[in-house]
Amino acid sequence: MSIVLDLGGLGPADVVAGPSALSELMASLHVLAEPEHHPEAVGWAARAVAAGDELRDELSVFAPLWARFRCRLFFPLVRPGTAPLAANLDEELAAIAALPAEEFLDLVAPGVLGTNAQPVPPGDALRAGAWAAEDYVLRCLRRSYARGELARQLVAAPLELRDRLLAVLRAADTAFFAEDWRTLRSPLENHARDVRRRLAPLPLGEPASLRSPADVLTELLPTAARVGPGERVRLDKLQIDEVRVAPRPLVLVPSARVWPHLTVKHEHPSCVVVQYAARGTTPVEQLTVRDLHHRLMALTSPARMELCRHLLGEPITTSELAARLGSSEPQVSRALRTLRDAGLVRSTRDGKLVRHRLATEVIQRLGHDVLATVAR
Description:
The chain is about 50% helix and about 15% strand. The chain has helices at about 20-35, 40-50, 55-60, 90-95, 100-115, 130-145, 145-155, 160-200, 215-220, 290-295, 300-315, 320-325, 330-340, 360-365, 370-375; strands spanning about 1-5, 15, 225, 230-235, 240-245, 250-255, 265, 270-275, 315, 345-350, 355-360.
């Protein structure tokens, strides 16, 4: 499985590289919400969760926004010809505070649902009492109670929810992120400067550089590779998609907390964003799925490995797995039985539904390479 980015038509000036305090805060909040994905950050997470009970409760309410899918609100909106990235978290939060209700809904509603497998109505259709809004809330509720409740509040009063979210983010910044960011910002800015240097045209009179944006991207990401003709780069990811980037800019956001994930956001018309682990921030070598299959004979079935990836983020029913995979429920049930018999999946009853989730600590005991590759 992979996302292919078609970078044809992009020049060095169309690639923006720089850290984002807001995106890094989101990655940090994901670590706190899903610590089993991030054993390398256990020490930092233990210090961060020392925040008060009230903040922890509020972070739990908004946790669907920084779960595996990642809400688009937390990534830069860079348009051609505009200033590239905000200088600090205050500026990024101020930009969110200035969003009108419909644009806020457009950016947040897909994150609450937490999947791109189902279409989300535009913000102007998500009005309280409208059929589209009620259907959207119901679909979120089917995924989880937390998502359903957050969707209900979003539809009922989007600007009130926006202000509440901003208050939570500012509280998290005061409690633990500001101190962390003071340490992380300089190395990430140095990394971004190096990326921009690689993309910069050489002085007149020197031989022209043969390095294109596609070359630089494959240099940055250990699991990326050039594919086929043209300027196409394959990124090892859960999704299957091909994204034409131009005429939008490509925004590269280095991170110290995002590992082992690699985040690609391409839904918004302003730009395509790739948030990736900056060099020196990954505790182990990053493997491709092909490498992982070679090393782990117990997980040689690509179908079961794909199933594991879906089971990592949150409990999922057999029918939803079948819909996501385009498979039949009996086929999914057989694969689940094999994984459950091996101790890799746990199934729990929730009323009439049975939900399945990957036993991440079991995978972790097989080695960091397995968990990191499944989680990417």
